[in-house]
Every structure is written in C-alpha cells, then in structure tokens.
Write a structure and sequence with these properties.
By secondary structure, this protein is an alpha/beta fold. Strands 9-8-7-3-2-1-11-10 form an 8-stranded parallel sheet. Strands 16-18-14-13-12-19 form a 6-stranded antiparallel sheet. A hairpin with a 5-residue loop joins β12 and β13. α8 packs parallel to α9 and α14 runs parallel beside α17. The protein is globular, with a radius of gyration of 24 Å. The N terminus and C terminus are likely disordered. Bound molecules: 1-deoxynojirimycin.
Length: 588
C-alpha cells in the first residue's frame, strides 16, 4: 500500500504537479483536469486566506505588503489554491486590525497602492487564482469622513442619522441608551462631547452604520462595483448578519425568536443581499458573495444561501466543532442537508484570523472553539494537535463543497501563546482586561526560511515586526524547511490539494456515508473514492481491494491508527471492494 503523499503525486498527470504552473488551472475548458466546464468555480474552490500584514514583507518595514504577496504567488499556485481572500487592505488606524476602514476605495500605504493591488489581481488571475476582497458594511472607522462629519453635526442631523446616535438615559443622559454589550466586551455605546451616545457592536473606534438610510445602501453597492470593476472575483462580507437593527433599539433578550433579535439575523437583511446578488450577477463572470454569518441555527443560516442571495457562507459550526466523531459527523450531516435544500455548496473551514489555530486547539482537552471560553494558559499537546489537524485537513479536503485555508495552517503553525502583554494589539485582549488572550496568537508573521526570526518574512533580519513577536522554535516550520520534507504539513497540503483538483470522486459527486462504527467517520464519493477517519484508540483494518491515495499519518501495518484520515481508491470492482462489510450503509 502506498502512503507517501509525494511519491503518489509523482504519478499524477503533468498538469497536477505543484512545481509547474498549472495551465489547467487557467483553462477550465481543458479536458482531463478534473474540472467540469459548466460548474461554477466557487462551488468547490479552495480559498486561501491572506492576512496580508503577516504574509510577507517585501519592503522591509516589518509589515506584510502587496509586493510580498506578489513575490509569493508561485508558492500559492504550487500549493494549488483557486482563490485568495484578503483581509481588509484599506487605509485604517488599526483599532481592529483593519476592520475599521477609513476609505473603502484605496489601499493602506503600508501595503502598497491601488495600482499594485490591480497588478496583483491580474497576476494572480494569470496563474488561475481569483481574488476575493473583504467588505466591512456593519461599521466604519471613527476616522471615516462620514463619522467625522457626524461628530461635527448637531443631534438628529442627516450626518448623525447615518449612524446610531441617541440621547442617554438617567437624569443627565449619563447612562447608555440601552444595555447592549459590545462583542469585544463592555457597553456597545460611547458618549460624545455634546452628550449623545453612538452605537458600536465592536470597538468604540468602529461606529455602526444605520442601514435604515438609503445612502448607506447606495454607498456599499458603489464600493462593490468599484472592486468588481477591478477584476476581483468576489467579496467576503464582514459581520454579515449584524447590519440591520431594530430601530426601537429594544433590550437584547437571550432567547429571542428567529428574526426577532434586535441586531442579529433580522429579516430585512435579505433584501440587502438580494440587491448585492443582482449586482454580482450583472457581470459577465458573475461575482461571488461570501458571508461571515455566525448563526447556530443551520436553517436560518441557509436562508442567506437562497439562489438570489449569497453564494456561500463560512461553516463556523464545523470550525468550532470538537474533534470527536459524533459531533463531527453530525456537523457535516447538518451542513450538507441544510445547504442541499437551497442548492448551495457547504464550506469547510478549520481556522481563520479570529480563532485559535487548529494545531493548538486540537491538542487541548476541549477541542471545540468558543470565543467565550478562551483563556490564557490552557494546556495543549501540540503533537497530538498536529496529528489531528492533519487528519482534519484531509477530511475537509475530501468533503463536497469549497474549502478555506487560513495562511499558516498549511505549515501547521501553532497559536503563538507567549506574546508579551506589551506587544499585544488585539482589542479583544485589551477590552477583556487580559482575561481573553485575544487573536494576536494566530496573526503572527509567517516563517518562510532560516532558523530564527524573522524567518525570511522580511528582507531586513533586524526588522521590528508590526506584531513584534515570532516564537524562537519556528525554524522547522518554515516553508523552506518543510518543502523538501515529504512528511511535513506543507507536503500533506500540497499533495492533498493536488489530488483534490483531480476530483477522484468525479464532478460534484455526493457523499455516501459508510458505517464503520461510532469511532469512525467514513464515506464514499463517486464510484471509487473513499475517505475514512479513525478517531478511536483501536487501529482500524483497511478494506481490501483499495489503494491508499494518501494518509494523514503513516499507516501502521496497513492499519489506520487513532486520529488518522486515509483516502482510498478502489482498484478492483465494487463488489470485491466492500468497505462496509459486514455493516449496512445509508445515504446522507
Ligand atoms: C469579523 C472579523 O473577522 C473580525 O476580525 C473583526 O474584528 C470583526 N468582524 C469586526 O469587524
């Protein structure tokens, strides 16, 4: 049985090899490259999330930039991704790492220029990689011209009505208008010089826009057009379920009925996204809308994916799911079922710039993710976490739908948990009084080469990084160190994505669950592809009549040990290869 991912990759067709720039990526029409011509690209795309400040610094100022991304496009092409999603790259005072935008139509000078962004979009596209930009419609920076105008304007003026200004409660208006809490902690209201208060669901430097105002709708449609006209393939919509508020601003009740919460998932939101979808569809190559929608209710979530609304949403249920077979299986089933009802592809997300990196998370006693339970000093077993993160990556790659990879996950970076307090930047850490470790630990600059900081991230070896910390032991995790190592996380991702591009399951094939018992997730796709994940302590005997395409961890005597995923391809006829013997199978 074949287990070495790189050896197997050598047998792949020319167009699938990582080192060659894939012609087949450009031409969806080319036959034999596992791509159906009529299938929209986004339905099974692999999207790589670029946190630009920490990706690569070309000009040596300690902050990643557009030139750094352009210099590493071949790395991304070799990795085998279909699209790049950039976190906000707009001018920003960085109260929330760029999610406080001053000008939505330009590039922060720390990153480069608009011209360079256009070049990057075109160069990536020439390599078959599309670009997705981050749109932040719920709030702006407190330095945005609209908010400055509002501060200078009197109460009840049009300029103030673009936001949520209200008089306070109490004898002198000294109390906030209601008890709403900021997602970053503390009151969601801040008082201004003339005594009025304004709403910010995040930091005070991020005042919420009032989507009751028509110019707010118009402005955002214009921003979309601006980027669509520059060749971006789509937008990721920040805090997409929060835009609309109940204008009465009633108190927040914990068990509000669906659609009744005063600022989450309000029904009128769907009108916004219908307008955006019509705009996106008006392009010859229709643009794509990806929503950041954190909702526990799968059916409410799916409403955003109706055919005239968003194309995809991030699957946070899967991301937050503990590494346990029951919850994982249930999460996958629920996502597939709820998405199928609206004919939308599910997405498989293991990490992003807001959550604890998967290697660290999966090494903990509680392997799930919740913002509320993040605490300093939670122990982790990184070896175990890495093994599980490898298994999770192959599981995610094998599932039908699209996949998101947060930069550094392909290197197996752990969360940097030893950032000294004086270097931390995240408002979640600051506003929690240091109780919540915040998100800096997953935003550390990538290690490209060498054995000590800045690990090739910047050309200046003595540079002071924007987040002035990289762990001392990241040398073996650098791209350089992992490239030639067939057992590295990077090799696993490269080989896995290469095979995924070949779609060994056939175009768009659905998943068929196989029953290997409680401790195992197993499914077939198409005629001959099988994915099996063993969560249990008992090594699992693999079925006969199949070749191993790849495994997340070396097999032990042809058995699948704990926390390992294997991809199998049938070599004999289906009758001979009967993975579920003697158990029965059922469809999803
Ligand atoms: C979600 C983003 O992912 C996060 O980083 C940001 O802090 C909030 N939205 C507010 O924009």
């Amino acid at each position: 049985m074949q287990t070495d991912a790189t050896e197997k990759a050598a047998e792949l067709p020319e167009c699938e090899r990582a080192t060659e720039l894939p012609e087949c990526e450009r031409a969806t029409e080319l036959p034999g490259c596992g791509r159906a011509t009529e299938r929209p690209w986004w339905r099974d795309a692999v999207v790589y999330q670029v946190y630009i400040r920490s990706f690569a610094d070309a000009n040596g100022d300690g902050t990643g930039d557009l030139a750094g991304v352009r210099a590493h496009l071949s790395y991304l092409a070799a990795l085998g991704v279909d699209a790049l999603w950039f976190n906000p790259w707009y001018p920003s005072p960085l109260a929330d790492a760029g999610y406080d935008v001053v000008d939505y139509r330009s590039i922060d000078p720390a990153f480069g220029t608009l011209g360079e962004a256009e070049q990057l979009i075109a160069e990536a596209r020439a390599l078959g990689i599309r670009t997705i930009v981050d749109i932040v419609p719920n709030h702006v920076s407190s330095l945005h011209p609209w908010f400055k105008e509002a501060l200078a304007a009197p109460a009840a003026s049009v300029a103030r009505q673009r936001f949520w200004f209200r008089p306070g409660k109490g004898a002198d208006g000294e109390l906030p208008p209601n008890e709403w809490q900021s997602i970053f902690g503390g009151s969601a209201w801040t008082r201004v010089a003339d005594g009025e208060w304004y709403l910010h669901l995040f930091a005070p430097e991020q005042p919420d826009l009032n989507w009751e105002r028509p110019e707010v709708w118009d402005e955002h449609e214009d921003i979309l057009r601006f980027w669509f006209d520059r060749g971006v393939a789509g937008v990721r919509i920040d805090s997409a379920a929060l835009l609309l508020k109940d204008p009465e601003l009633p108190e927040d009740v914990p068990d509000a009925a669906p659609g009744e919460h005063p600022f989450t998932d309000r029904d009128q939101l769907h009108d916004v996204y219908r307008r955006w979808r019509a705009l996106a569809d008006s392009y010859v190559e229709p643009r794509v809308l990806v929503g950041e929608v954190w909702l526990p209710d799968a059916e409410r979530l799916a409403r955003y994916l109706r055919p005239d609304e968003l194309h995809t949403v991030f699957n946070f249920d899967f991301l937050a799911c503990p590494w346990e077979p029951g919850p994982m299986r249930a999460s996958i089933k629920s996502a597939l079922a709820s998405h199928a009802r609206v004919d939308a592809p599910a997405t498989w997300v293991l990490s992003n710039h807001d959550v604890t990196r998967s290697v660290t998370r999966y090494g903990r006693a509680d392997t799930g993710f919740a913002f509320e339970t993040k605490r300093e000093g939670t122990p982790t077993d990184l070896l175990r976490g890495q093994r599980r993160a490898r298994a999770a990556a192959l599981l995610a790659m094998a599932l039908p739908g699209s996949m998101y990879i947060y930069q550094g996950e392909e290197l197996g970076l752990p969360e940097a948990e030893d950032i000294p307090p004086e270097k931390r930047q995240d408002p979640m850490w600051l506003r929690s009084g240091g109780v919540d470790p915040g998100r800096d630990g997953c935003r550390v600059a990538l290690p490209w080469s060498g054995t000590k900081p800045p690990y090739g991230f910047s050309p200046d070896p003595n540079v002071r990084l924007w987040l002035d910390h990289q762990p001392d032991n990241w040398g073996p995790l650098s791209v350089e160190a992992q490239t030639e190592d067939p057992s590295s996380m990077l090799s696993l991702y490269r080989a896995g994505l290469r095979i995924r591009r070949q779609a060994p399951w056939g175009a768009g094939s659905q998943l068929q669950w196989l029953d290997y018992g409680e401790e195992v997730i197993a499914f077939a796709r198409g005629e001959s592809f099988f994915c099996i994940v063993n969560f249990g302590t008992q090594p699992l005997e693999l079925p006969a009549g199949a070749d191993v395409l790849m495994a997340s961890t070396e097999l032990v005597g042809d058995k699948l040990s704990q926390d390992t995923t294997v991809w199998l391809v049938q070599t004999t006829n289906r009758a001979a290869f009967d993975p579920e013997q003697p158990r029965a199978h059922h469809s999803s």
